[in-house]
Design goal:
28% helix; seven-stranded mixed sheet; 4 helices; alpha+beta; 7 strands
Length: 152
């Protein structure tokens, strides 16, 4: 991808980087082994990205494509790279890959309290189609997951 971002396809060799980025973004981060395992499954792919001047990856989107539908399994951008367009670039690239694999729909779940992510998804054409009550938990607190869908 040209422009202010670098976006590339990743593989199992990126599992440690994915775990690091995930740990910085989420309190319930996935371990390296989970990323490694997921990336060995058919239909699962990851795109990593960074701002053009950044020395290393600053975000990623992990997607599963099955039976004409795509699903964002997890997605994050490092704090210092947020709100600059990298997340949008990654999400759009992931949607392009899904479309190229004959997907008609892309789904994702997001915490109702994650206003930044919700705005990004809405900007990218995702609409709310469902809700999972108390899906996300952090200690004694919980938040609903909004199920969102984009139709291609």
């Amino acid at each position: 991808m040209s422009g202010p971002f670098r976006v590339r396809a990743g593989d199992v060799g990126d599992a440690a980087v994915l775990a690091q980025l995930h740990a910085a973004a989420f309190p319930d981060a996935w371990p390296e082994a989970a990323f490694f395992s997921l990336l060995t499954h058919p239909g699962v792919f990851v795109l990593l990205g960074a701002r053009a001047a950044a020395p290393s990856e600053e975000g990623f989107v992990l997607i599963r494509v099955v039976a004409g539908e795509g699903e964002v399994l997890t997605f994050c951008v490092a704090d210092g790279a947020r709100r600059g367009g990298l997340g949008h670039a990654l999400l759009e690239a992931a949607c392009e890959v899904a479309r190229s694999r004959d997907c008609a729909l892309m789904f994702l779940e997001v915490s109702e309290s994650n206003l930044g992510a919700r705005a990004l998804y809405q900007k990218s054409g995702f609409v709310e189609v469902g809700r999972r009550g108390a899906y996300y938990r952090q200690g004694s607190l919980s938040a609903d997951a909004l199920v969102m869908r984009k139709q291609f």
